[in-house]
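We treat protein structure as text, and this decision shapes the records that our systems exchange. The tokens are whole numbers drawn from a learned vocabulary of local backbone shapes. One such record is reproduced below, unchanged from the form in which we store it:
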Amino acid sequence: MPNDEILESLLAFRRERDWEKFHTPKDLAISIVLEAAELLEEFQWKNREEVARHLEGEGRARVAEELADLGIYLKLLAHDLGIDLEDAMRRKIEKNRAKYPVEKSRGTAKKYNEL
């Protein structure tokens, strides 16, 4: 896994507080879901125009914080499981390219098995 300044900072932060014992894969996965729900709250009950206004104002900072929380937990979980997240994402993109060929999937939200 390549050296990552953010990851090193996260690991130091966690180590200094003796939080490793709380960061089991299960609990990190739960935290990801909880933070995703907090991100979703920023958009709940808003139409497209309301979302745009929300993101032009103070909502943008809150959305950025929720995204940061998600990124933190994802980085920690991937690290703890020995998974190179960027490599896993590259492989998933290639897998999706095969499942969703442009000529069949362009402009449609259908799932790959419905194309």
Remarks:
- Residues 98 and 112 are 9 Å apart (CA to CA).
